[in-house]
Amino acid sequence: MVMTTANAIREDPTMDGPGAPGPLTFGLPTQRWAPLPEPPTQYGTPNPGVPARRRTPAPAIGDAVYCVLSFVPAVVFFVLTVTLCSVGLGLSLIWVGVPVLALALLTARLGAYLQLAMCAALLDSPMPDPGPPPRRRGGPMGVLGALIRDAANWRAAAYWLLKIVLAPIQFGVVVGLYSFAFGGISYPLWRGWLPPELAADGSWHRGAEFGRDYVIDSWPQMLIPTVAGLLMLAIAPAIVRVLVLIDREMIRGLLAGSSR
User: Fold this and answer.
1) Partners of 208 in the beta sheet?
2) Mapped to the 3 state alphabet, what secondary structure does the chain carry?
3) Cα–Cα distance for residue pair 107/87, rounded to 1 Å
4) Cα 237-65-225 angle, rounded to 5 deg
5) 89 alpha carbon, distance to own chain's centre
6) C-alpha torsion sign, points 165, 166, 171, 172
7) Residue 1: which pLDDT band, with cuts at 50, 70 and 90?
8) Average pLDDT for the chain
9) pTM above the 0.90 mark?
């Protein structure tokens, strides 16, 4: 009977119009649902108001690029810091070396900003920078004294003394491991450009030679460097990651944070 009454009400044309009652609820509570967000207009485009997720390169690629690129600032800032510190300390007895020493520490601090930026961009490890150099009143000597007494500057100089030892290891390991990996994987492609070699039996072969009688020039033999390259490509990221973790802890302990 209830369904019959409801159908009669819906079919009554007098119930249409501005004054028509709302939908039948039969005493049940109603709930208004919020509108659904509009789908993105393009694949990968976030909705308005939703923060975009930060996109970073693959960890293995970021680690390898960081180890290669960080070699240059390691050499540059080590040379500048050590040279200026040596001159500044040697001439500090006659006060001429005080500005040179302050310049050395300020150079090391500028290098710290660059290293922190590389760490955040390539390693996806943002860290707080030490902040701007301290400002002190009292004339030029007060400013120079503040720079020399700032512990963050000395920590930055200590980092470059350690980084110059680690940077060549990082660079060499990355270049060596990945060169071996990609060289072995692509060996069947570039083997044909090797010069021919004369074997002990008088036959000519074109390929990598081990000893006098073993040349890798057949397809079964070429599987050896290919498989070796694949294995190296699989374990190289883990080896490089260990070196990156050491460097990152050095950055966290010596470069990051505020001046004290």
Assistant:
1) 216
2) CHHHHHHHHHHCHHHCCCCCCCCCCCCCCCCCCCCCCCCCCCCCCCCCCCCCCCCCCCHHHHHHHHHHHCHHHHHHHHHHHHHHHHHHHHCHHHCCHHHHHHHHHHHHHHHHHHHHHHHHHHCCCCCCCCCCCCCCCCHHHHHHHHHHHCHHHHHHHHHHHHHHHHHHHHHHHHHHHHHHHHHHHCHHHHHHHCCEEECCCCCEEECEEECCCEEECCHHHHHHHHHHHHHHHHHHHHHHHHHHHHHHHHHHHHCCCCCC
3) 14
4) 50
5) 36
6) positive
7) very low
8) 79
9) no
**Over the stretch 122-165, which tens digit does the pLDDT of each residue have?**
998 899 888 777 666 667 777 788 888 889 999 999 999 999 99
pLDDT tens, position by position, 210-224: 766 777 888 888 899
Do 185 and 229 contact (CB within 8 A), yes or no?
yes
Q: Look at the block and give the residue holding tokens 């308005």.
A: 48
Distance CA 188, CA 225 (A): 9
Structure-derived torsion over alpha carbons of residues 76, 81, 84, 90, reported in degrees to the nearest 10: -140
15 pLDDT more than 60: no
Nearest to 216 by CA among 197, 230, 235: 197
Q: Which of 24, 30, 28, 29 is nearest to 2 (CA)?
A: 24
Which among 186, 159, 187, 138 has a CA at the least distance from the CA of 246? 159
Task: Find all residues with CB under 8 Å of 36, minimum gap 6, and list them.
Answer: none
Q: Report the pLDDT value the prediction gives residue 147, as an integer from 0 to 100.
A: 85
129/187 Cα distance (integer angstroms): 45
Tokens encoding 236: 């190289």
